[in-house]
Structures are given as structure tokens and as C-alpha cells.
Amino acid sequence: MAPRVFYAPILRMKRILFYLTCVTLTLLSACGGGTAPAAEPTAYPAPPRPTEYIITTLPTPKSDSGIITGYLLENKANPTAPSSTVLLALAKIIPGPDGQPMVARFNREEAPHTLTDVNGRFVFKDIPPGQYGLIVDRISDAFLLNDPDTGGDFIFTATAGEVLDLGNLVYDAIPGVPEGK
């Protein structure tokens, strides 16, 4: 009598090999660069930026608020060196119990901000009446400026309906601003 041959395990093995081959071929064809690579995206051109930011006119102050303006200049040896595109802010001066200025309150989210133009000129519009200090805001740091002449506290008062011109504020170096900026 001839030995019995069981084909079932062999058939199962062939079936498994067939499925593994199909899966492998499918994966290889999916990875095989069947499509052309997408073209590199072209950058959307940014709108042109003005080459110079210049404040030409002062707005008229409203009856319930004031305007504060001046020039931020660097280097007393050359007081015409403007500090352009410096971010400035105002800090509200809080008086102490005796009514004298005690502390400058600066909240980056609420404080009025402005940029100096290429000539170092700045303008704060619609400023509520009160006492303020001038801040150089570098986003990561903020610096309260002293009086450029005396080195003492630099406190000024905004008045409703008026323009306060602080004049030329000339510093040897402006805190937080690279020299000649």
C-alpha cells in the first residue's frame, strides 16, 4: 500500500506564500514612485513694504484725549542720529499715598504703542489725560526711559484736547536698541 500524502499543509503553506507575495508587491508598488513628484510650491510674494516710514502730519487731538509726540535720538555726539522703527509704549504713572508718583504701570496688552519713523519721530494718539512714562518695548523686555538730560525720572502729563511735544529726546544709548538703529 502506498503511503498517504497529506496535501492540506502544503496547500495552506502555498496559500500563505501567495498572500505574502501579493501584500509585498502591493507595498512595493505603492512606494515605487508610481507618480511624478509634486512641483515645489512657489512662495506667495509678500506685499511690498514701504522703504521709509515717515510721520508727516500730526492729527488733531480729540476733546477727551491728548496727543504725545517727540523725537527719539541717539548719541549726544551726533544728536541727529534717529532711532528708527523703535517700538515705544506709555506706562501709566500711579501716585503714592502722598500724591507723588510712586510707580509706572506697564501692561503690554493695554498700553498705547507706536513706532518711531525714520527720523526718530513718534506720535501717540488718543491718550487719556494723566501722567505717563516712556517705555522702549522690545517684546521680550521693556525699558522705562529716564530724563535724557538729568538721568532722573521722566514723567510727563497728557492733557485732553492738547498736543504735548516732548521735543528731542537725545540719549547716549537707548536701552534694548542696537546702536545706530
Topology summary:
Elements: H1 8-31, E1 66-74, E2 81-82, E3 87-95, E4 101-105, E5 113-115, E6 121-127, E7 130-137, E8 142-144, E9 156-158, E10 163-171
Parallel strand pairs: 1-10
Antiparallel strand pairs: 1-2, 1-6, 3-4, 3-5, 3-7, 7-8, 7-9
What does this structure look like?
The protein has 181 residues and is of the alpha+beta class. It has a domain at 66-171: Immunoglobulins (Immunoglobulin-like). The chain has one helix at residues 8-31; strands at residues 66-74, 81-82, 87-95, 101-105, 113-115, 121-127, 130-137, 142-144, 156-158, 163-171. The strands form two sheets. Strands 3, 4, 5, 7, 8 and 9 form a six-stranded antiparallel beta sheet that branches. A hairpin with a 6-residue loop joins strand 1 (66-74) and strand 2 (81-82).
